[in-house]
Design brief:
The chain is of the alpha/beta class. It contains 14 helices and 12 strands. A hairpin with a 5-residue loop joins strand 1 and strand 2. Helix 1 packs across helix 14. It starts with 19 loop residues before the first helix and ends with a helix.
């Protein structure tokens, strides 16, 4: 049975294209609904966000001029708890992208059995072109605009592309000033000094590697001698490369938005991290050769970790991917067409809603700690994270085998079923 993709909310925005990340997210949901046999009304409820807000964000620049930016916050689902999702500052942010990311967050939280629904936010801005003071003003104004719909029991933002723990500190302070008291649980990914959790900054990277090592074992690839390429050397990719190297995997190539480096015998990842800290890019690193960034995705390696942005593996390059395993560090890096090509080629794709869920797991831990004003040790956080990631891996692997599904299909079916069960149990009001 070939499922149809629902016409996503034309009442909100008639400009929706059937392609892109939202098209992939809708197609994944439709396939899961077909497997589960849900009726059209339930499908439509799962497909549409519960709430969307688009706001103007006026910014006074350092030179005194005023610029108007656009921000979004999409809350996809509340059936299993308050909404949860990152805030990104990027020049290509648009509403459809945010909708897709919010939906994927819903499935991610359900798959890892975290009591949240999914949300996502974004401001269309290139943070590289703005001062720290300007970014603070953008953050505070955006926060004040979406204030009515966020809160520790409503929607809890976290860092994403272009944002960091300083962004979360500004959001928390803005919300707290409006509330009249300090509310550390309104965001996660905060500085530890403001109630953040130990281990949160590296949690997504650590989760990627826990699952990557499990996937290597599943495919019978010994860690000693295994090779990996990591696309993206930011918050997720840099940490993933480090943890892979520490585990004994040979990281032969990495890239960022400026360029790529390759060393057949393996890169010195700590030296590369130091170089990036000094220069801001992997470009010019003396311990490797210059590589054309798109070529990194086609290297003959055991493990490929796309940890940058959406849609980097697509119909135009998927047939040239030679990695045995793809572990998605980014959200939506593999299009639907690429998924089919990779599956036919026997490439094991570990989907984003499983592979990069470490961040939301430790965000949940941080939220719990903030609400209780009781903090755990780094070892406790790391142990709980590893246990939750491997439990989810085992569950997805079992479902895939039992139902004859790919890992992405199995993960999505598991997550959608949990969200639908919660919705049906709660009932429809009125």
């Amino acid at each position: 049975m070939t499922p149809n993709v629902l016409p996503f909310p034309e009442v909100v925005d008639g400009s929706l294209s059937p392609g892109g990340p939202l098209g992939d997210a809708q197609a994944q949901l439709a396939a899961a609904v077909a497997t589960l046999g849900y009726e059209p009304g339930l499908h439509e409820m799962l497909a549409r966000p519960r709430r969307e807000m688009t706001v103007s964000v006026p910014l006074r620049r350092d030179d005194g001029s005023v610029e108007i930016l656009t921000g979004h916050r999409v809350q996809h689902n509340f059936s299993r708890g308050p909404a949860k999702g990152g805030l990104r500052f990027a020049p290509n942010v648009d509403l459809d992208e945010v909708r897709a990311l919010a939906m994927w967050m819903t499935w991610k939280c359900a798959l890892l059995d975290v009591p949240y629904g999914g949300a996502k936010g974004g401001v269309r801005i290139d943070p590289r072109n703005y001062s720290q003071a300007e970014l603070e003003r953008v953050t505070r104004r955006y926060t004040s605009e979406i204030l009515p719909i966020i809160g520790p029991e409503r929607d809890i933002p976290a860092p994403d592309i272009g944002t960091d723990e300083a962004t979360m500190a500004w959001m928390m302070d803005t919300y707290s000033v409006s509330s009249g008291y300090t509310v550390p649980g309104v965001v996660t990914g905060k500085p530890v000094s403001l109630g953040g959790s130990l281990g949160r900054a590296s949690a997504t990277s650590a989760g990627v590697v826990h699952v990557a090592l499990a996937a290597l074992a599943h495919r019978g690839v010994p860690v000693a001698g295994a090779t990996a390429a990591v696309q993206g050397f930011g918050k997720v990719g840099a940490g993933a490369a480090q943890f892979l190297a520490e585990a004994g995997v040979t990281v032969v190539a990495v890239s960022d938005q400026y360029g790529a480096v390759h060393a057949a015998g393996g890169l010195d990842v700590p030296a590369l991290q130091a170089h990036v800290a000094d220069t801001g890019s992997v470009v010019g690193f003396g311990g490797g050769e210059v590589l054309d960034p798109p070529a990194l995705l086609e290297l003959d390696v055991d493990l490929l970790v796309p940890a940058a942005v959406e849609g980097v593996l697509h119909g135009g390059n998927a047939a040239r991917v030679r990695a045995r395993i793809v572990v998605e560090g980014a959200n939506g890096p593999t299009t639907g067409e690429a998924d089919r090509i990779l599956d036919e080629a026997g490439v094991l794709v570990v989907p984003d809603i499983l592979a990069n869920a470490g961040g939301v797991i430790v965000s949940y831990f941080e939220w719990v700690q903030s609400n209780q004003a009781y903090w755990w040790s780094r070892q406790e956080v790391d142990d709980r994270l590893e246990r939750r990631m491997l439990q989810a891996w085992d569950g997805v692997l079992a479902t895939a085998g039992a139902r004859g599904l790919t890992l992405r299909e199995a993960a999505t079916v598991t997550a959608v079923e949990r969200v639908a069960d919660a919705h049906l149990t709660r009932g429809l009001y009125p």
